[in-house]
Amino acid sequence: VDTAMWDRLDTGDLYQAPALKRFRQLQFLPKVKPDKIAAATVVAVQKDKRFVRIPARYGGYHMLNNAPRRIVEAALTGVKFAAPVLAAAPTSDWQPIWATDNPPSRDWPLYTRGNVGEVFPEVVLPLTWDLYGPRAEAGWRSAYVDMGLLMPGDFSDTEPMTILSVFGGYCYINASYVRVLGIRAPGGTVEAIDSQFFGESNAPAYAAKPGDKNLRSTARLAKTIFRLLGTTELPALLEDKAEAADYAARYPGKDASDEELLDYFDELAPLFERLFQRHIDNTFSVALLSGALADLLVKAGKEAALVSILGGIGDVESAAPSTAMWKLAKSAAAQPAIDAEFDAGVDGLVDRLAATTDGAAWVVEFSAFLDQFGSRGPNEWDIASDPWQFRPALALAAIGRMRAAESAHDPAVQAQRLGKERLVAIDEVRSALNRVDRFQFDKALRATTVYSQGRERSKTTIIHAVHGARRAQAELASRMAERGGPTERWKTCLLSSADFRQAVADPAAFADMIEERVPLYKTLSNLVPPFIIDGVVPPVETWERRGSSTKTVAVGDVLQGIAGCPGIATGIARVVLDAADPRELGPGDVLIAPITDPSWTPLFLAADAVVVDVGATMSHAVIVSRELGIPCVVSAVGATTSIPDGATLEVDGNAGTVKIIALP
Question: What dihedral do alpha carbons 530, 533, 538, 542 form, nearest 10°?
């Protein structure tokens, strides 16, 4: 404090008396003693205050004096100003590993494989990423703007790919920015966001930085939550479904020209952006509503009830293929001749069955299944991957595993059980809440259910559209093979969109480029990408190899994960690394998987419980297991590499634990 200044104001020295009097009148400045100002300043510094408040009777002065500053401060909260350029920025030493890679964000450096690992579990091929990678980023940003999270200045204009990125060929989500939702959303926390999207990991703790808090964003998010709580239906999803179906129906067919097929293929990009925006909107609506629901459960003292009240909600489209497969499996098991053909192996199974009367009828049912669900399969978001329609043997293998499953696993039976348990859990929560909170709980539960169903429906819609483009690409790849190009369809997806368009007519011109990328693709495919990347992509030489084992567990050890679906089961561990090769998985077994996409779902019904290395409360394994009634634990880090095949386990889907009972 400049006490000399205050002395001058107090005595009038060096000021003209009329001027001093007028100054005091205009500023409401009282006569104060320097020691009081000094004492108040010391207290303010000790308490880390941004301003000094002098005695309360002069509070009116401070209110008026600080009002302009507070107004400007509120208006500029979260706004980032470009730093003055003092010198040329240093050249980045970042180098791409794979053709689809982009550099990590400077402002938002933390990335995770959580959640997105289920969408792109394998190396992303250039043709797929060129077609809709940037479109996915654009759709995601639009969804963030609509919900009120993304504010001007959050993302740099020099970083076109920030939310989604590819490192070493593997897709990542920006965890730094998703965590901001926990900061800006009313009542949100970073811990809740991590649990919902990423699960257990070695991610560094959240470190606040200027701009993370944003009053305008918080206000808009609050408005969004208020709107979401009143949602009872999502008619727009039916419009999206119709648009995707129309696109798929317009597939030009084998008689179309190259140009017609290429144009149809490119048409997917703008459609994908619109559909993906809706999907992200549904996904984060569930996140916001689940947060509101969790807060009410805390008030009721029923935090553990969240898993039960979100189980068995019904009308979850991701679970529909498993239900249809169950019926086919039980139909096959009930007919000895068909059952015996399954035992003989899936190679040539359809042809063998079609040659018999009973088998032919079953094949008709299976063909109807492929017509409805043929777009689903492993790595189904990638154009290069073969869905069930292209490789029916994948679906037949899963159906074969279900034949011996106990009747208690019947999805219809489980739906009834889960429905009853859900009603009981809801009644217990409602009875523990007061009238006002009960009203809010009912709205939050209804809206969460609607958006949870909507999230899976929007995902199915996207896959249906992607399959239309995949069919066109497959026809073009077939023509390339006839013209001397690669005979394996996936290799044609090693080209960018522009190169692919040219290669259709002249595949020989791109033969060297394709063959140069094949070895690197195979090398990267045999590696496990880091689950967390913090600003710098580790050299691929440091990545673990797939199938490499870590320290094994001992009897009595307990792996702590995240509760996915309630229930307790004891069984034999079956470590399955590829959904197309379920090995000896059967009744009484516990499926241990590294990560799950929809191609794994049918295997859930063949097991008594499911344990997944990674995942979170919004992961595919959790959503589907809740519908099928299979005890599930996700984010059991290292389960596939530390639990030996044949070990006896106790899986507690209520507590999220996996206990080692015996070793083989």
Answer: -20
Contact 323, 405 (CB under 8 A): no
Q: Is 93 helix (H, G, I), strand (E, B) or coil?
A: coil
**How confident is the model at residue 44, as a pLDDT?**
76
Q: What is the pLDDT of residues 545-604, one digit of tens each?
A: 887 766 678 999 999 888 888 889 999 999 988 877 777 788 889 999 888 777 777 888
Distances (CA, A) of 355 to 337, 367, 408: 12, 15, 33
State CA 610 to chain mean position distance.
19
CB 654 within 8 A of CB 565: no
Q: Per this entry, what is the length of the chain?
A: 664
> Are the C-beta atoms of 316 and 286 separated by less than 8 Å?
no
Flag the least confident range among 109-118, 189-198, 334-343: 189-198
- List Cβ<8 Å contacts ≥24 apart for 384-391: 384/125, 384/127, 384/128, 384/489, 384/490, 384/493, 385/122, 385/490, 386/489, 387/467, 387/470, 389/467, 390/474
pTM: 0.83
Copy the structure tokens of residue 280: 């992200």
**β pairing state of 110-112 and 170-174:** antiparallel
Q: Read off the DSSP letter of residue 615.
A: -
- How many beta carbons lie within 10 A of that of residue 8, not counting itself? 14
Percent of the chain exceeding pLDDT 90 equals 59
Distance CA 105, CA 176 (A): 10
d(CA 117, CA 452): 19
**Distant-in-sequence, close-in-space partners of 369: CB < 8 Å, separation ≥ 6:** 321, 324, 325, 328, 395
The Cα 390–Cα 550 span in angstroms is 36
Residue that is written with structure tokens 């305008």 in the block: 216
Q: Kindly report the three-state secondary structure assignment for every residue of 346-363.
A: CCCHHHHHHCCHHHHHHH
